[in-house]
């Protein structure tokens, strides 16, 4: 449980993050997200806006009995009483109390132009709205934080009202005054200067909440910490409106590993990558492979350029040991593939290349030729592993011999669209003809081929396509371009990726499918 | 053309950005990217590493005759001479000269540990490598910039060698010494301190190159500018290894609109969004809707909350007028916005919707239904125009009635891969059966359909596919996802784009093809 002395890590995925276009958490999703955030040791989880959003009201009700948190406390978000209304008469404020959370976070206007033009009230009434609401909630036993909306823009227009709002909040018993860059237009140097100035004028714990409209949300937050803030707000994976919010995972990783501030309990940091991906799943948003710290490619190194050096001293090339945040280092095999890359990759894939220097040389040459034709193994580890193993002396024979295949799509007179495929293959000397349907020409081909092989290789019954990516390369007009297909296949336990390249999209897919099934039989 | 006095905006999409996992630019792509970067007024375009990468060698050769730049100059990248080798004997350095660019950018080690452990040489030899190579290139008439690799980590280990490298470079005639945060582990406050210190110890133009491993690349670059740097490096959309590089578009937008530095010529800033999206297309990477400044959602506000306030005073809610960077404000999820968009778009496409309020309403509803199914008209103006016109009272009948089609791909016993398609259509009451081949199932279908229609519509003889893009949406496991196909068609004079969506890739392509040919006949 966060104590008054500790640094506050405050996550608002479930309130501000949920504003992102396309996110729609169910109540069950929200409970799951809260548990995940707790696992990385955040101190505060802002769960939503009770009263204003029915799902949020329900979330807080269910959380009371269903949510057991180890590190975090739950926070209900809402606004100060409305202008001209008594706080005890304001149903929004009552809804905040009904949520029965230990902490309430109020949003207050701190920019004179917003007070006058949006709220249409006076500066004095605005201060009273803040003071009354804070005092009312404190009297009911709540810890109260106050988000000062549009603080930085307001500070530029009139530096005194924002400070007055902070003082009114603290005097009424608020625990934190959060400076919010609501429109997201700040840069870190400016944030540092404003925070230092406010720090010198106001006692009480200051917080920071940044949006990413200039691409500086994380940096702005860290600059604020250096200038005296001890409460940071973020969302998982930086989800939020417009360009999003400061990414909680980057904030935590930077504060701990770069600024030496132990803001989460021991043992929590290695959970970062797992939790980042799990929350992306719940939000139904593809994880960003290039996300700092937790992205799948965050520690992936390309190029024969320094593969030899990485083997010697990984710390010369990684700003951080990836294991600290639950990630790992990957070597990519690319156009710049040299012997060192191939050896390293082989080791990573569990292929023993010791004493096979000639094999390594042949593989390097083969990869360069294929890549010039459009093949790319960077994202297709399973195809690369098969290519490596096939170059070794004791390489096994292919899974089957192809005689022919045919796949078709028909849009009939009745309007039905049907795809069918027939494969003729030789499996262990036996000729097999297999026909199947599918929802596209490639899916039908995949079904037909698996059907042809499954009695000989029963484990293929659990194998299915998980994803299919098509890329048309170097279009050369009507004569056609090269098509590269990447296929993700799963057996319900793990996934592997294979690649195929050809002028004909179906033939390219065929290559990727054959690799996928061969890999399934030999290496899963 | 950039002069010595100006601020340098240096883009390395084609060299460092191309290191991103999954990017593979053809030479044609590289030329197209260079033209686009020129359109936003960058001063320097680092085109690649001649000698080391065959495609880059070819790029520089073709650029000499095929690339006409208005604002930028081309830069060739490479390394200093190898240790113990004379500069005039080093083929890598000769390759830099052979590229015949006005500017060369050299990468030099500036971290003592890298000099000793990775290069396995002495600090003195490292300084000689820098001086010799710079002097050699300057003597051959090149302007030389020097990237000081691992500068910040090196500075922490030994602040003197990095400074010595800078001095050696400047003394030998280099124009810029670029401080590179190669491992990406810096935060802005630290960058500012190091740059200020270096600025006080070294004369000569300093530059900054940041990687995004802590999520602070843009902020770090701006902090460096505030501390005295006058040359910033970035990549389009922040593409690059691991977590990527500083995003050139965010750098430029921040420098101009937040820091008051006119780093690109007038009229270039409004091209930012268009160029960002076009380069994403060339890289075959889906644009990031939440990217600062240029993302489709960067200025999108959820309605209801403050839609009325936004209409009154947009500057209270936007940190910047979106039009400055070629973007626009979107109000999400309101019927009013839907109608306004349709009317605006109709006007833009030359469709007169006056007095057809009911039509507008029906189109809005239809678009919402289609978009929920995966259709997107943002990039398919021709399909949208056909949809609009089809909703008007005097809408013409379809070009033909489809009876059926069939398309197949066969991989024969002899190893040939053949695609064939047959369409059965009714054209002006006459039944036509047409069969054609192609290099894929869709190309065959396109050839068969055009063949069926060309005698009735002779202008189709000049029409052909120019590009074909496939995106698989929302994969739901083996039951199949939705496929969205975008088809670019040309008549040799102009191009137009149409869209099709269906679970079956061929049926999706069919829709896009029919729209493409209908548009060709009616509106070209």
From TrEMBL, chains A, B:
- PANTHER family reported for this sequence: (R)-CITRAMALATE SYNTHASE, ALPHA-IPM SYNTHASE/HOMOCITRATE SYNTHASE
Top EC category: transferase
- Record keywords: Amino-acid biosynthesis, Branched-chain amino acid biosynthesis, Isoleucine biosynthesis, Transferase
On whether Transferase is a keyword of this UniProt record, the answer is: yes
Q: What is its EC number?
A: 2.3.3.21
Species annotation: Geodermatophilus telluris
Which family does the entry's similarity section mention? Belongs to the alpha-IPM synthase/homocitrate synthase family.
* Protein's recorded name: Citramalate synthase
Molecular function GO terms recorded:
(R)-citramalate synthase activity; 2-isopropylmalate synthase activity
Q: In which pathway does it act?
A: Amino-acid biosynthesis; L-isoleucine biosynthesis; 2-oxobutanoate from pyruvate: step 1/3
The UniProt entry, under Pfam families, shows: HCS_D2, HMGL-like, LeuA_dimer
One GO BP on record is:
isoleucine biosynthetic process
Which segments of the protein form a coiled coil according to its record? none
Report domain Pyruvate carboxyltransferase positions. Answer: 7-273
Q: Which reaction(s) are listed as its catalytic activity?
A: pyruvate + acetyl-CoA + H2O = (3R)-citramalate + CoA + H(+)
**Its domain of life?**
Bacteria
């Amino acid at each position: 449980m966060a104590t008054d002395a500790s640094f506050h890590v405050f996550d608002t995925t479930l309130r501000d993050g949920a504003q992102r276009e396309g996110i729609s958490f169910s109540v069950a999703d929200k409970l799951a997200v809260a548990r995940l955030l707790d696992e990385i040791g955040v101190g505060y989880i802002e769960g939503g806006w009770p009263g204003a959003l029915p799902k949020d009201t329900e979330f807080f009700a269910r959380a009371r009995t269903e949510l057991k948190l180890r590190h975090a406390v739950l926070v209900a978000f809402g606004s100060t009483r409305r202008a001209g209304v008594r706080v005890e008469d304001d149903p929004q404020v009552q809804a905040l109390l009904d949520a029965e959370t230990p902490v309430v976070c109020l949003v207050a206007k701190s920019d004179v132009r917003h007070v006058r033009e949006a709220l249409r009230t006076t500066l004095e009434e605005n201060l009273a709205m803040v003071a009354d609401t804070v005092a009312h909630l404190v009297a009911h036993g709540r810890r109260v934080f106050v988000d000062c909306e549009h603080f930085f823009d307001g500070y530029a227009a009139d530096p005194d009202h924002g400070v007055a709002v902070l003082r009114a909040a603290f005097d009424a018993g608020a625990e934190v005054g959060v400076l919010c860059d609501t429109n997201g237009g700040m840069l870190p140097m400016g944030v540092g200067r404003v925070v230092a100035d406010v720090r010198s004028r106001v006692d009480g714990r200051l917080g920071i909440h940044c949006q990413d409209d200039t691409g500086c949300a994380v940096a702005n937050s860290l600059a604020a910490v250096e200038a005296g803030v001890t409460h940071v707000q973020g969302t998982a994976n930086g989800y939020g409106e417009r360009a999003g919010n400061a990414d909680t995972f980057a904030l935590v990783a930077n504060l701990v590993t770069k600024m030496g501030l132990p803001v989460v309990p021991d043992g929590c940091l290695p959970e970062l990558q797992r939790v980042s991906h799990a929350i992306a799943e719940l939000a139904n948003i593809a994880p960003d492979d290039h996300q700092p710290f937790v992205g799948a490619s965050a520690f992936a190194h390309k190029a024969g350029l320094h593969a030899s050096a990485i083997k010697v001293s990984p710390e010369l090339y990684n700003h951080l040991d990836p294991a600290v945040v639950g990630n790992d280092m990957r070597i990519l095999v690319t156009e710049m593939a040299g012997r060192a890359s191939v050896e390293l990759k082989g080791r990573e894939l569990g292929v023993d290349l010791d004493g096979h220097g000639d094999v390594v040389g042949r593989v390097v040459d083969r990869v360069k030729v294929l890549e010039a034709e459009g093949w790319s193994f960077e994202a297709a580890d399973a195809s690369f592993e098969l290519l490596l193993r096939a170059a070794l002396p004791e390489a096994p024979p292919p899974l089957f011999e192809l005689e022919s295949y045919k796949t078709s799509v028909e849009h009939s007179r009745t309007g039905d669209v049907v795809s069918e495929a027939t494969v003729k293959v030789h499996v262990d000397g036996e000729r097999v003809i297999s026909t199947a349907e599918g929802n596209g020409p490639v899916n039908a081909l995949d079904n037909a081929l698996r059907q042809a092989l499954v009695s000989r290789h029963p484990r293929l019954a659990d194998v299915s396509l998980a994803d299919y990516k098509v890329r048309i390369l170097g279009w050369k007009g009507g004569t056609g371009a090269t098509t590269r297909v990447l296929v993700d296949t799963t057996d319900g336990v793990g996934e592997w990726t294979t690649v195929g390249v050809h002028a004909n999209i179906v033939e390219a897919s065929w290559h990727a499918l054959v690799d996928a099934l061969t890999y399934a039989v030999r290496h899963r």
